[in-house]
Structures are given as structure tokens and as C-alpha cells.
Specification:
CATH architecture of the largest domain: 3-Layer(aba) Sandwich
Oligomer: single chain
Helix content: 25-40%
Structural class: alpha/beta
CATH class of the largest domain: Alpha Beta
Radius of gyration: 19 Å
Length: about 300
């Protein structure tokens, strides 16, 4: 399949590096949000890196900063050209500079939706079955710039029950930031924290697989957890899947080639699409800023930027 894509791209992409108004790019840089260890992130995107190099005719580099803010700042500073952001990370980027990036594509789930959920979970042998059982216990978030790992649960969980706040010692005995989705999953699985939140899409009757896609599915695929050892204790309302974004100042032909490449990824190389989009899905579809207005407003109200 890779040879097929490379051959299709070679007829046009490798004639010369990507140009716009007489200016050629010399490299293309893709940022990958935190959520699993850096090497796994690099491995998941290696196929896209290869395809982008073929399509653009210049070296493509993958950057996997330690936290979400590393990707956000890279996009704002012009050192990262493309990324698949969570909705809150996109909102953070937009609020700091509305002209920095543009959302171009969004992941489509197996059911045709473009939404996912924040999932609260605990160990199955902990006796915790809901947030009612979490009082006085240690609760973990991922990253402050994560939509499902902080923003949405920090808004919706206090609505679950009077007295719940995100402050340590109020309802939860302690509230911790673990650093990312994978770190939260491992911390709960190891008993280092009592409960936490992560993300999942395609919430059918396949808990044992980590649902269709998301951080739980990636953890199962990596052999980090057995879902029979975990139990769901909370679920958010539907959250819009985060966008694939491109820097607005990129040459138009670079944008067009990368949009086409990512849009066709699932059809042309399902294995690559599985890795890039963290599990099963139907590929991608166009998206605009309007899809994320509510998340931008929620972030502005909750975090301020």
C-alpha cells in the first residue's frame, strides 16, 4: 500500500519542492500531542512522515514535545507546521493568536460521528463504581491543555454533585496532573491514583478493547492494560473531535497536498490511519473553526487562554 501511495504522489509531488509565490519550503514539521510516550508517538506517525516527504518533496520531521503546550507554542512560533490538536489545545492556540492556524480536517468515528467522550475510570478491584465513591480519594487529570483530560471534566464533574471541585482536599482527597492520557491510565492501573479521566470514541459494547479509538484503545494495543482490570465510573457529554490544523502562513499548495494526504490516509493505508488517529475510524472530513466556538468560549471562561 505504501508503494501505491508513493507512486501516486511521485508523478506530481517530487517534480520540485512545494512552492508558493516563488518561495519554497525547505522542510515540513508535524507536532504530536502528548498522551503516550514519545517513541510510541513517533512510531505511530512514521508512515505519515514518509508520505509527507513524498508528497512535498522536502524532509518531514516529527516533533513529540513532553506536553501539549510544546505543540501549541510550536504552532504559534512557526516551528511546527501541522498537528492533530484536541479541541481545547486548538482553543488555546486560537485565543493566543487567531491567525496562527486553521482547522482543516476532523476524525470520523465508525458510527459517522465526529465526537468523543471524556471517560472517568478506576481499578475494578477498588470498589469504586462512580464519582460518589471518589470522595476523599486521589483523582488524576492528564494535561491542563487537554480537552477530555482536564477542560471538560473540570466543568462537568462539578455539575455531577454539589460539593465537587477540582481543588485538592475539597471533595477529592487530592487532585493530580499526571502529564498525559497514557500516564493517567498507567497510574490508575498501578494503583498510584484512585481514579482519573481519559478519552475514548465509539462507545459500543467493547470496553474490553478500550472502545473503538482513543487513549484506552492505544493502551490496550500497547499491552499496558487489561480493560477487565478497569471500570468506567463517569462519562462526559459528547465533545467535538479535535481538528487537524495547519499554519495559516504555509504555501497554499503545501496545505492542499497535506489536506489531501491526511484525508485519503484511511482509504489508502488503514494501518497508518489507525496509528495516526489512535484507533478505528472512517477517516477524516473537512472542518472549520465554527465547530469549536463552544470549546473556545468554555476555555476562555474556565482557563482564560
Amino acid at each position: 500500500m505504501k508503494k501505491f501511495i508513493a507512486a501516486a504522489l511521485a508523478t506530481t509531488a517530487l517534480v520540485a519542492p512545494a512552492f508558493a509565490d516563488g518561495h519554497a519550503i525547505t522542510e515540513f514539521r508535524i507536532g504530536v500531542l502528548g498522551g503516550e510516550n514519545a517513541q510510541d508517538r513517533m512510531n505511530s506517525y512514521a508512515c505519515l512522515q514518509e508520505y509527507a516527504t513524498e508528497a512535498l518533496g522536502v524532509e518531514t520531521k516529527i516533533f513529540a514535545p513532553a506536553d501539549y503546550n510544546g505543540v501549541i507554542q510550536g504552532l504559534l512560533g512557526g516551528t511546527i507546521d501541522m498537528a492533530w490538536l484536541g479541541a481545547s489545545a486548538y482553543a488555546a492556540t486560537y485565543l493566543q493568536d487567531p491567525e496562527a492556524v486553521e482547522p482543516v480536517l476532523v476524525k470520523v468515528n465508525l458510527d459517522g460521528s465526529i465526537g468523543y467522550h471524556s471517560i472517568g475510570f478506576a481499578r475494578a478491584d477498588s470498589g469504586i463504581t462512580s464519582l460518589d465513591d471518589m470522595q476523599g480519594k486521589v483523582f488524576g487529570f492528564g494535561d491542563p491543555n487537554s480537552t477530555s483530560g482536564y477542560l471538560i471534566p473540570s466543568i462537568e464533574i462539578p455539575q455531577y454533585k454539589d460539593g465537587i471541585t477540582m481543588e485538592s482536599g475539597d471533595y477529592f482527597g487530592e487532585v493530580k496532573f499526571t502529564g498525559g492520557h497514557e500516564q493517567t491510565i498507567i497510574a490508575v492501573n498501578n494503583g498510584d491514583i484512585d481514579g482519573g479521566v481519559t478519552w475514548a470514541a465509539g462507545l459500543n459494547d467493547n470496553w474490553e478493547d478500550g472502545y473503538d479509538s482513543g487513549a484506552l484503545r492505544k493502551a490496550v494495543d500497547a499491552g499496558l492494560v487489561d480493560m477487565n482490570d478497569l471500570v468506567q465510573i463517569w462519562k462526559s457529554a459528547v465533545i467535538p473531535e479535535g481538528p487537524v490544523v495547519l499554519r495559516k502562513t504555509l504555501p497554499a499548495d503545501v496545505k492542499a497536498k497535506m489536506i489531501t494526504l491526511v484525508d485519503d490516509l484511511h482509504e489508502n493505508d488503514p494501518e497508518c490511519g489507525y496509528g495516526v488517529f489512535s484507533g478505528d475510524g472512517l477517516g477524516a472530513q473537512p472542518v472549520t473553526h465554527e465547530t469549536y466556538i463552544s470549546i473556545v468560549e468554555a476555555r476562555k471562561a474556565k482557563i482564560g487562554g
